[in-house]
Amino acid sequence: MNSSSINKILIDKTILHQEIIKKLELVYASALAATQTAIDTATDKENVPEHKYDTLSLEASYLAHGQAQRLQQCLRDLHSFKDLAVKNCLDSDSVSIGALVKLLGDDEKCEKWFFLSSVAGGLSVQTSSIMVQLITPESPLGKALMGKSVDDEVVINIANHTKCYEIMSIY
After folding, report:
1. Helices 56-83 and 13-43 sit at what angle, rounded to 10 degrees?
2. Does residue 59 fall inside a structural domain?
3. Based on CB atoms within 10 Å of each CB, which residue in 67, 69, 93, 158 is the most buried?
4. Stretch (H or E) spanning 8
5. Would you give the DSSP letter of residue 47?
6. CA pair distance 148, 134, nearest whole angstrom
């Protein structure tokens, strides 16, 4: 049994999917608390303006509105991710939404794990002794990975800095 087969056995995408949902639920709970705090501040009797330059209540209401929008986005992300079917990919498959990809960086010579998701880009989750970062197809790396296969090289340029990766496995 080669090392790729051993790694395949150790990666349970159902558990990874559940861990990502838990993390998204925590993000939602944090956004809910921040929204409630902003609403409480905006509606507190002690924050009623005493003169036209006293804008604490107005500023808090703008913040509450922004937090409410963030809360709705968190809820959409959570529902969208819950609706994402867990699919197990083979190394012969190409990268698409729902793929867990192991990359090897040329400059770092270390493995990096990415989960291609339609939402929550940038979120990181620790599972099965690996750190997995969610990326979206709109991100530079996500765009570069879409449709690629194992052993393909992926090159991205961010802020005049070129990074090269090799796709080691697709799960």
Report:
1. 160
2. yes
3. 67
4. helix 3-10
5. G
6. 17
In a domain, 119, yes or no: yes
> Could you list the residue range(s) of the whole structural domain that residue 161 is in?
100-170
Whether 79 and 105 map to the same domain: the answer is no
Do 113 and 101 meet the contact criterion of CB atoms below 8 Å apart?
Answer: yes
How far is 155 from 147, CA to CA, in rounded Å? 14
Rounded to whole angstroms, the Cα distance separating 38 from 110 reads 42
Each residue's pLDDT tens digit, 95-108: 999 999 999 987 66
- Per the CB < 8 A criterion, the answer to whether 59 and 49 are in contact is no
pLDDT tens column, 8-29: 445 789 999 999 999 999 999 9
- Could you tell me if residue 147 is inside a domain? yes
Helix (H, G, I), strand (E, B) or coil at 20: helix
The pair of three-digit structure tokens given for residue 3, joined into one six-digit string: 């090392």
Same domain for 77 and 122, yes or no, is no
pLDDT in tens, 140-166: 999 999 999 999 999 999 888 888 999
